[in-house]
Design a protein that fits this description.
6 helices; mainly alpha; 72% helix; single chain; 189 residues; globular
């Protein structure tokens, strides 16, 4: 891959990494400034209830941007359209969850988060086939392993805040691996 598609793949991969970093930084800052917040037993969405809770919309927007940019990078890496569609729909769900927050639209917010994670899980499962002709390093190992871990964290009997954070961290790790590998992707000879 050379020329414009390669440039755009690298550009969108870089933007995805920036979006993920933005999400992590905003959520970490909100953890630090919310008095009495218990990360083990409270959902990340409950950060919206704190004194700076309005910044949670920026965190969700950053995550939605990261997911959409990863979809665009995969598109420019010539991934199957279903992969692009899954991550594009997940990005819309993440953004919707930021707009319809837990304290104002509980069911819609929870449904959008659940849908985003399911869509990302499907993308994790499908990635090895979506880029079958390309050179990702160990796509089955990291995609299926991290996808399985994400599902396990959601299913295990862990405190809800901890389970959510572990699942989100697993998804972010997968996104980072994909974005970094797309930036170094080289066609098969």
């Amino acid at each position: 891959m050379s020329g414009l598609p390669s440039f755009l793949r690298d550009y969108f991969s870089g933007l995805a990494l920036c979006g993920m970093a933005g999400f992590v930084l905003i959520v970490a800052a909100l953890h630090a400034v919310q008095p009495g917040y218990d990360a083990r037993h409270q959902l990340m969405s409950e950060l919206a209830l704190g004194p700076y809770g309005g910044f949670l919309l920026a965190a969700f927007t950053s995550l939605a941007l990261a997911t959409a940019c990863l979809a665009a990078a995969l598109y420019h890496a010539r991934a199957h359209r279903s992969m692009v569609a899954l991550l594009g729909a997940a990005a819309l769900c993440f953004q919707g969850a930021g707009l319809f927050q837990l304290h104002t639209a509980t069911r819609l917010h929870v449904g959008l988060i659940a849908a985003a994670f399911v869509l990302c899980g499907l993308a994790m499962a499908g990635l090895p086939r979506a880029l079958a002709a390309k050179r990702l390093r160990h796509p089955r190992v990291f995609s299926w392993g991290l996808g399985g871990a994400m599902a396990a964290f959601a299913a295990l009997d862990l405190p809800i805040g901890l389970a959510q954070r572990l699942s989100a961290a697993t998804l972010l790790i997968w996104m980072v691996i994909v974005a970094v590998q797309l930036r170094t992707l080289r066609p098969k000879p």
